[in-house]
Specification:
Blueprint: H1 3-29, E1 41-43, E2 55-57, E3 59-75, E4 78-82, E5 87-92, E6 99-100, E7 105-109, H2 112-147, H3 153-185, E8 188-190, E9 195-200, E10 207-208, E11 213-218, E12 223-230, H4 231-234, E13 242-247, E14 252-261, E15 271-277, E16 289-305, E17 310-312, E18 315-322, E19 325-337, E20 340-345, E21 352-354
Antiparallel strand pairs: 1-19, 2-21, 3-12, 3-16, 4-11, 5-7, 5-10, 6-9, 7-8, 9-11, 12-15, 13-14, 13-16, 14-15, 16-20, 17-18, 18-19, 19-20
């Protein structure tokens, strides 16, 4: 074999060896050469005596079944600002999220028709006042003649009656003017308290109708979480009872108090409305989404310290202390309760597990 041919053969062998080594490395990384371990006990090499302070006993205890009910953060005080009469909306001064002060103008209604009615009423009042003045003068004159016996009692009584009728007409005209001016005041929709505009439901040019909201206003303080809770669990709540509330947008869980419980059960959903007074939380706004956490029932669970559990890929394992040595046990876990975790398979009550074991290679 010539020298060039020998070099080419060595080069091909080197490349083949490199490719084979790469394939073996990939297979090793995928776990091809690691045998599958069936559930059960696996003794570890070089076991050492484990101090008692690093062990924990598997306990069987009654734990609460924690359920979560969705809710919405709302203000304790909410006002729908609506017109008291039918009139076209001329202007709306606020938008959603605007802050307003008590007495500030929210919207303006068309007042032209009322102004025309006011002018008519004022003219009628002027006429009634003039008529009453003449009737009063006639009464005084007739009274003088009656005293001098120059007028009959019948004439005097008739004049007095006309004077009273004229005065009644003045009172009626005055009331009409006052009523119209009250309606004129109602063309300005004012904020009843300091608050924040939540919704703007109408636009200029829309017709304002009695009882139909133009904007919704609320007080940003005194926020509550309102959640619909199934009747089977709602009966556990009491006013002033402390509960846990989780606000996802803030990533916070706080302790709050039940503020109000609706006595009615919704006929469709079979739920009751629970309102929870929330503490002051920076960034909390009405409309935020939250969860009411509740223990509704209990069950028996096996508990171990969460620090005793190790993860090998998708597997969960613990080190069990048995007969003076450590044994690796495959387990399945469920919910956590503080610093402890529930084990649903792989352990039995009374067994001893190693807390904060060395990481299994």
């Amino acid at each position: 074999m010539s020298q060039p041919e020998r070099k080419n053969r060595n080069k091909i062998i080197a490349i083949a060896i490199a490719v084979l080594a790469l394939i073996l490395l990939l297979l090793y990384m995928q776990g091809t050469f690691v045998s599958k371990v069936s559930p059960g006990l696996s003794p570890l090499v070089n076991d050492a005596n484990t101090p008692k302070s690093e062990t924990a006993v598997v306990e069987k205890k009654q734990v609460d079944d924690i359920l979560n009910w969705p809710g919405t953060v709302r203000s304790r005080i909410v006002a729908n600002i609506a017109a008291k009469m039918t009139a076209r909306i001329i202007d709306i001064k606020v938008h959603a999220s605007d802050k307003v002060k008590k007495g500030e103008v929210i919207a303006i209604l068309d007042e032209r028709e009322l102004r025309a009615q006011e002018n008519i009423a004022l003219a009628a009042l002027a006429g009634a006042t003039a008529q009453a003045g003449r009737a009063k003068a006639d009464e005084q004159r007739t009274k003088s003649l009656y005293v001098k016996e120059a007028a009959t009692r019948e004439n005097f009584d008739a004049v007095v009656a006309r004077a009273k009728e004229a005065q009644a007409a003045v009172s009626q005209a005055t009331s009409t003017v006052s009523e119209i001016r009250t309606h004129l005041a109602d063309t300005l929709l004012l904020a009843p308290f300091d608050g924040t505009v939540v919704k703007r439901l109408k636009e200029p040019g829309d017709m304002g109708l009695p009882g139909v909201p133009v904007v919704t206003l609320q007080i940003p303080q005194g926020l509550r979480l309102e959640a619909d809770v199934p009747g089977t669990c709602a009966g556990r709540y009491r006013t002033d009872m402390e509960v846990r509330v989780r606000i996802d947008t803030l990533g916070q869980t706080v302790t709050a108090q039940v503020d109000e419980i609706s006595p009615d059960v919704d006929s469709q959903t079979r739920t009751q409305l629970i309102k929870i007074a929330l503490p002051a939380m920076a960034g909390l706004q009405a409309g935020s989404f939250g969860w009411l956490e509740q223990a509704c029932g209990q069950h028996e669970a096996l508990l171990i310290p969460a620090s005793a559990v190790q993860h090998i890929g998708q597997l969960e394992v613990v080190m069990v202390w048995s007969e003076g040595r450590q044994l690796m046990r495959h387990i399945r876990t469920a919910k956590t309760f503080g610093n402890r975790i529930e084990v649903i398979s792989g352990l039995h009550a009374g067994e001893i597990v190693i807390v904060n074991p060395q990481q299994v290679p």
